[in-house]
Amino acid sequence: MAIAFVLNTTQSKRKKPPIWIHPTFAPEHGVLLVLFGAFLTGAALAQQWTYSTTTALICAFFALQVEHPLVVQIKLRKNFKPRYVLWGGIYGGITFLLAIWLWLQSSVLLWLYALAIIGLIADAISVIKGKHKSITNEIIVFATICLAAPLAYGATTGSLSLQAMAIWILNTLFFSSAIYTIKLRRKKTAAFKPGVIYHCCAVAIVTCLYTFNCLFWVTALSFAIALIKLGVVFTFQKWYRQARFHSIVIFETRFALLYIAIASISVLPTHLPK
């Protein structure tokens, strides 16, 4: 019996698949909320959902998955990891094929692809320089992810509009605001001043977009959710800085979902086209 047990144990160990077979996924679930939220606002602006919209969503999802293995492999530098290279290549290949198909349906998407590539290159450079978690790079990452909004609009309608790009800017400003509140939990970045300056600048940008008729007034007002959140954080800053991270995730997620709902509904017509 003892010999049989040893043999079974040895066989089970041999049958264990190599680690590089296991897929890699973005460890931060918050970026998925940003991606789907931004995409939803773009699809809502398009006021319809087609097979091209679904394809664009799948393309955006796999494009997001490329970033994690790329960043990890760059950080490891000389320590080559087949798993990250393999899955980064698979995700990149799927993204490339879907992007080509979408481009053949709507050539205007090429501009969005260029912006996404620039964002990915900037992210890679920041990793090499050891500034991956800097505020500037995190804003660039959010801006790149929020390209999902004009991607959804462009893939669905076959064109891009000023309003679609304005939605991209609005999404970037809102989701980037979380960078400043989250960093309040760290001693080195615990000052409120940078966050206040950012929100003031963001309000000015949103106001300009509304003034030039790039946003509906309700859509523009959806950014007020970020201001309300900042006010709540300021009022209960002791709790915010000392609470468990899980509680902060729930806190941030609720405000993000509220913003997504308002921004998406605000661009819908009274009756959807049949």
Automatic annotation (TrEMBL):
Classification via Pfam families: YwiC (PF14256)
Print the keywords alphabetically: Membrane, Transmembrane, Transmembrane helix
Transmembrane intervals: 20-45, 51-72, 84-104, 110-128, 135-153, 165-184, 196-212, 218-236, 248-268
The record, for InterPro entries, names:
YwiC
Please report the name of this protein according to its UniProt entry: YwiC-like protein
What organism is the protein native to? Hyella patelloides LEGE 07179
